[in-house]
From TrEMBL:
Domain Release factor glutamine methyltransferase N-terminal as annotated: residue spans: 11-77
Residues of the Methyltransferase small domain: 110-200
Name of this chain's protein: peptide chain release factor N(5)-glutamine methyltransferase
Domain of life, source organism: Bacteria
EC id: 2.1.1.297
GO biological process, one term: methylation
CDD domains linked to this entry: AdoMet_MTases
GO molecular function, one term: methyltransferase activity
UniProt entry keywords in alphabetical sequence: Methyltransferase, S-adenosyl-L-methionine, Transferase
Top-level class of the enzyme under EC nomenclature: transferase
Transmembrane segments: none
Organism: Streptomyces prasinus
Catalyzed chemical reaction(s): L-glutaminyl-[peptide chain release factor] + S-adenosyl-L-methionine = N(5)-methyl-L-glutaminyl-[peptide chain release factor] + S-adenosyl-L-homocysteine + H(+)
Length: 289
């Protein structure tokens, strides 16, 4: 019998190391890293397969970095959202699985709309915009990002998705709070999605976010609402009557974001929704007619 370690051994050893470092999803991360090292999708991992010494060594190195709380996406260089893979690296936000709910809500809002006009504000890697373009090939999708480094990744991902056959999206370097932003689309947009930075300055976060992510992707003023406060009037201006806004926020913004939408006087049917763990995650509203 061979004494080469197996994939299962690799995963279980890494799981113990990641558990000891209090990494939130040790088994899942150990498995993702194993798939990355072996160059296969997670679903194709064979637990009984033997692994080479160099592969075990590389896995160990990556697990040590993950134990230091480097985000998983920065180690594998990729993240999945809405059925697509996007490339990520230090300098751009790693899309969160929570955004699947924002996407699903956005897709639902477009069910009865043909050739919808969609805007993703604060697009980062482009994940939300590109996932929507993938789901709705008939959509005209615009995406806006302020940070040049993030915008580079959005460009890279947009080119890759277009090569894969998705409808190309239009990327814009810009400030999502700019009163003149995308003025040519005023009153025409069917759906605006946004995952802006929303953490109050100075709040202590898990190192994945507080230490390794770009500050601009995470923090947004003393109450975390600086960007959201600027996005509300921009969304009100861009949306057509009856158009939908879906905006992520901090779990502590469950009341303040709906209040901001209400007090703008531009929105109706304002609601707030929770994530899978029942923590407030995003607000939705429709542009008053
Ligand atoms: C939480 S990340 C979300 C990225 C992406 N939408 C996602 O879900 O993966 C917020 C993004 O907003 C960008 N950003 C921050 N302030 C902005 C502003 N005023 N205008 C446009 N983008 C902004 C950051 O650079 C970052 O890429």
């Amino acid at each position: 019998m061979s004494d080469m370690p197996t994939v299962l051994w690799l995963i279980e050893t890494a799981e113990r190391a990641l558990s000891a470092a209090s990494v939130p999803n040790p088994r899942g991360d150990a498995t993702e890293l194993a798939a990355h090292v072996l160059g296969v999708e997670v679903a194709r991992l064979d637990p009984g397969a033997e692994i080479q010494e160099e592969q075990a060594e590389l896995h160990k190195e990556l697990v040590a970095k993950r134990a230091d709380r480097v985000p998983l996406g920065y180690l594998t260089g990729r993240m999945h959202l809405g059925g697509i893979e996007v490339a990520v690296a230090p300098g751009v936000f790693v899309p969160r699985v929570h955004s699947e709910l924002v996407l699903a809500h956005g897709a639902q809002a477009l069910r009865a709309v043909t050739t919808p006009l969609v805007v993703d504000l604060c697009t980062g890697s482009g994940a939300i915009a590109l996932a929507m373009a993938h789901t709705r090939p008939d959509a005209r999708v615009h995406a806006v990002e302020l940070d040049p480094s993030a915008l580079e990744w959005a460009r890279f991902n947009a080119a890759r998705r277009a090569e894969a056959g998705d409808t190309p999206i239009q990327l814009h370097a810009g400030d999502a709070t700019d009163p003149e932003l995308l003025a040519e689309l005023d009153g025409q947009v069917d759906l605006i999605m946004a995952n802006p930075p929303f953490v109050p300055d100075g709040v202590q976060l898990l190192p994945e976010y507080g230490k390794f992510h770009p500050e601009r992707a995470i923090f947004s003023g003393s109450d975390g609402l600086d960007v959201i406060r600027g996005v509300v009037p921009v969304a009100g201006r861009l949306l057509r009557g009856g158009g939908t806004l879906v905006i992520e926020h901090g779990h502590f913004h469950q009341e303040t974001v709906p209040e901001l939408l209400q007090s703008s006087g531009q929105f109706m049917e304002i609601a707030d929704y929770c994530d899978q763990d029942r923590r407030p995650l995003y607000a939705t509203a429709r542009r008053a007619r």
